[in-house]
Amino acid sequence: MKSISKVYFIGVLGLLSLLSSCNLYKFSGTSIPPEVKTFSVDFFDNRASIVSPLLSQIMTEKLKQKFISETNLSIEETNGDFSFSGAIVEYAVTPVSAQSTDNAQLNRLTIVVEVKLESKISPSSSFEQRVTNFVDFDASKDFSGEEDQLIDEISDMIVQQVFNKAAINW
Fold this sequence. Notes:
The chain is of the alpha/beta class. The chain contains 3 helices and 6 strands; from the N terminus they run H-E-E-H-E-E-E-E-H. The protein has 2 domains: 1-30, no CATH class; 32-168, Double Stranded RNA Binding Domain (2-Layer Sandwich).
């Protein structure tokens, strides 16, 4: 029985090695073309009608950190092989559900970001897309006390969507 397990293990290991060496499967989880070595992220302007003062900086820095920590790409100040730019185009708090007294029980913070990826080396990787995400929160709580945490949560989700589109081709 042990010899069958050993043969099976060696066979699976050999198959994985073959797939990896032929570039049919990547263990990193990303599908960034190997020729792409650098990336840059321009400052995300805040063009929303309501402006949260730190949102542009948060969005820009989180996108940089995501690519630094989850890829082998080097960051450049400008003109990276992958060059990200964009703007925050919507920042809105809206009621989601009402109680019997016509007061909102839940509110929703929605952030919409327009993102553009230009790839000099791999033009097929380029895209321009609106990315939207939101978080619902208790309407009875003071929004200004919750705002930083909500922005942090939503910006993480938006950055993950951008990363998935750029690096994993989702």
